[in-house]
Amino acid sequence: MDVLLAFAVDLVFGDPYGFPHPVRGIGWLVAKTERFIRNRFTTARGLKVSGTFMAFCVPALVWGVAFSVLEIAGFIHPLLYHLLNILMLYTTLSVKSLGYEVGKVHKALRKGDIVGAQKALSYLVSRETKDLDDQGIIRAAVETVAENTVDGVISPLFYAFLGGAPLAMCYKAINTLDSMVGYKNEKYIHLGWASARLDDLANFIPARLAGLIIPLASGVCGFHMFNSFRIVLRDRRNHASPNAGFPEAAVAGALGVQLGGESTYFGKKIKKPTLGDPMVPLEPKHIKAGIRIMYTVATIMVTAGFLISRWV
Q1: Does residue 209 contact residue 288 with C-beta atoms inside 8 Å?
Q2: If we measure between CA atoms, which residue out of 166, 141, 126 comes closest to residue 270?
Q3: Buried b (16+ CB within 10 A) or exposed e, 71-87
Q4: CB under 8 Å to 236, separation ≥6 — which residues?
Q5: What is the DSSP secondary-structure string of 94-155?
């Protein structure tokens, strides 16, 4: 029941600007830990070993703090336990905020404001956006909402039902580490290696669930459910990430569009394999369709998790 209530709170409030979100605290901890490591280690081996400790210690600490707070709250009063549990679970979800932020890109495109769309997109992706045309912007936005359907919806809900708020918070710490240091560039290739691998492991099952749930959600929304399944089976490995190919292929098949291709990261052009078939050209409406699928996925996930938890 707490997960269901946390989901409802997220749908109403999202992530208000200025809210003291725990992820910001996790980010502060990661930044401090990185600075501590870099002041003491400079060799590739030293960075890799210390980065491995960071990858495991930060999530473990977050889990421990969340667990301890809830244990103390439960000792004081059961109602306080549930209130804090709901609050923690709510902060791990990104349904409304993801839809809102990606929706800014759609709104700018509908107004013909390419520069505004590029700017809104730049806050969501690591690729360079200043030279993207409308097709490139739409493709990046659809890929982002598809991939984050796992990171911001399926994974936190999966871990919330599996291990409550402490495990969901632990997952958010892993995901935050990956987003801050899990890059394959010169600066983070050694320090962030373990964080990136741990994030891949944490998302392994949720990503494959996405390959099942997104097609079902697509059918509910009136899109191409069977083509979504087909493209997942065919193109799920057409991605550098072992996990991102599942949700991106599923959304590409559902909408009948082609994702992937060439993008620029940190000044370097990367040619990525494509996912899906270009049955129709990319249009701004596909961004809204991706957001709609994401909301439906969240609803299916919460409903299924609640029913299973009642039966077990």
Answers
A1: no
A2: 126
A3: eebeeeeeeebbebbbe
A4: 211, 245, 246, 249
A5: -HHHHHHHHHHHHHHHHTT-HHHHHHHHHTT-SS--TT--HHHHHHHHHHHHHHHHIIIIIH
The pLDDT tens digits of the residues spanning 99-143 come to 999 999 999 999 999 999 999 999 998 888 888 899 999 999 999
Residues 179 and 169: their CA atoms lie apart, in Å, by 15
Contact 94, 136 (CB under 8 A): no
- Estimate the crossing angle of helix 245-255 against helix 204-221, to 10 degrees: 10
Most confident of 184-193, 255-264, 283-292: 283-292
pTM (2 decimals)?
A: 0.93
Give 43's DSSP letter: S
